[in-house]
């Protein structure tokens, strides 16, 4: 007897779950049938769905949806890590955002997730030396989502940007894996120097709402930056900083602050 092909659940459980949720959402809200079909159920893979969703959101009179979709498809085909990171981002949002109850929500409705996926294509373009097209993606993300991530910035996987309004991440910034940040976060430079001038955020870091991290400084793994803080100096691993300018006020409070999402320092 011929060996059976692997089930799709074994190949891509994240996409399988999204398809299942799409069918359920279609029954619950038939008026969203067009959106759910075109964005989810029509596609055979998460890569194709992401390409469609990003191109639809970023299309304008200056660049058609079809052209943008071809670019996104090319990026996904060339670099499978784009979709691997997207799966990790989806899981991160689902696990950390109490307002997210299904994987389908970020795909359809959460601009933070969608903007990060558009950035990932823009970063691929930048690395292919297609810088002008990468800048176009950056511009449209800023216009559509209110999120400005330079295509040369380096973001890890498992990124969760909650609410996501007014996020700015500069050209030489580095963000590690499993990082969570809230709205109005800035990872910015200082002065007008053109060299390495932006923050380096370690793995598992939580950056609270309105926090500003400025300059080529390191924020250690699993540290926590309290809401509204202005960070101008290096932050050791597993510490909490707060204030303007930020100072160490204690330990991070847990082993994974980016997962716990507790923004309020003790004491």
UniProtKB/TrEMBL annotation:
The gene is cysE_2. Residues 14-118 form the Serine acetyltransferase N-terminal domain. Keywords: Acyltransferase, Amino-acid biosynthesis, Repeat, Transferase. Belongs to the transferase hexapeptide repeat family. It comes from the Bacteria. Pathway: Amino-acid biosynthesis; L-cysteine biosynthesis; L-cysteine from L-serine: step 1/2. One of its GO terms (molecular function) is serine O-acetyltransferase activity. SMART domains: SATase_N. This is Serine acetyltransferase. It comes from Cognatishimia activa. GO terms for biological process: cysteine biosynthetic process from serine. It holds the Pfam family SATase_N. GO terms for cellular component: cytoplasm. It catalyses: L-serine + acetyl-CoA = O-acetyl-L-serine + CoA. Its EC number is 2.3.1.30. The keyword Protease does not apply. Coiled coil: none annotated.
């Amino acid at each position: 007897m011929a060996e059976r092909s692997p089930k799709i659940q074994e190949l891509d459980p994240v996409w399988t779950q999204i398809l299942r949720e799409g069918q359920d959402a279609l029954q619950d809200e038939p008026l969203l049938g067009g959106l759910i079909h075109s964005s989810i159920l029509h596609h055979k893979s998460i890569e194709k769905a992401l390409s469609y969703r990003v191109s639809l959101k970023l299309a304008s009179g200056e660049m058609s949806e079809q052209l943008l979709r071809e670019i996104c498809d090319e990026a996904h085909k060339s670099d499978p890590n784009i979709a691997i990171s997207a799966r990790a981002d989806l899981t991160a949002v689902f696990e950390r955002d109490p307002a997210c109850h299904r994987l389908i929500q970020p795909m359809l409705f959460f601009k933070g997730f969608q903007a990060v996926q558009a950035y990932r294509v823009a970063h691929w373009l930048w690395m292919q030396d297609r810088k002008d097209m990468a800048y176009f993606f950056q511009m449209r993300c800023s216009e559509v989502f209110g999120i400005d991530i330079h295509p040369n910035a380096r973001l890890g996987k498992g990124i969760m940007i909650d609410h996501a309004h007014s996020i700015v991440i500069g050209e030489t910034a580095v963000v590690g894996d499993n990082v969570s940040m809230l709205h109005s976060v800035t990872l910015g430079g200082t002065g007008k120097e053109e060299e390495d001038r932006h923050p380096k955020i370690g793995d598992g870091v939580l950056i609270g709402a309105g926090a500003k991290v400025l300059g080529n400084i390191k924020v250690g793994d699993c540290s926590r930056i309290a809401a509204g803080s202005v960070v101008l100096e290096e932050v050791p691993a597993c510490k909490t900083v707060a204030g303007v300018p930020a100072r160490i006020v204690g330990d991070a409070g847990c082993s994974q602050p980016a997962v716990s999402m507790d923004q309020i320092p003790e004491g």
